[in-house]
Amino acid sequence: MTIVVGNLATAEGQAALDAAVAEAEERRTSLVVVAGPGEPGRDPGELTERLRAVGVEVRLEPGTGDLADDLVRIALETGAELMVIGLRRRSPVGKLILGSGAQRILIEAPCPVLAVKV
After folding, report:
1. Is the pLDDT of residue 26 over 90?
2. What is the CATH number for 21?
């Protein structure tokens, strides 16, 4: 079984990655990190080495640019036991509507989703 997380160079992306690493360590399972093409601010080699250094088996998967679709597709392909996403705080009006990507993930996910709020 695996845990699937997106690789985004944002505060919510980092929070999701940190939570996914913690879950992978606790569950003693592997981690699949999905990155969009040309995701800025991340060196895939450095990320892989950092995660392996903490004892997490990690595999990087290139994304197509639609992270919600990529996460759901890869979760299905890998038989993921968990997906981890990051959410940012929203204005009072924004709280009424979840981000469209997060909403799609929650609706289409083939497994439980851990949402980490920043």
Report:
1. yes
2. 3.40.50.620
List beta partners, residue 115: 85
Distance (Å, whole) CA 74 – CA 34:
8
- Considering Cα of 84, then 90, then 95, then 99, what sign does the dihedral take? negative
Task: Give the count of beta carbons closer than 10 Å to the beta carbon of residue 83.
Answer: 27
Would the pLDDT of 109 be above 90?
Answer: yes
Residue that the structure tokens 């679709």 belong to: 69
**Considering its fold, how many domains does the chain have in total?**
1
Backbone phi and psi for residue 83, each to the nearest 5 degrees, phi listed first: -115, 145
pTM, 2 dp:
0.85
- Can you give the residue range of the structural domain that contains 12? 2-117
Cα-based distances in Å from 38 to 7, 41, 64, 85: 11, 9, 10, 19
The rounded distance, in Å, linking the Cα atoms of 80 and 82 is 5
Helix then strand count (H, E) for the chain reads: 4, 5
Residue predicted with more confidence, 105 or 46: 105
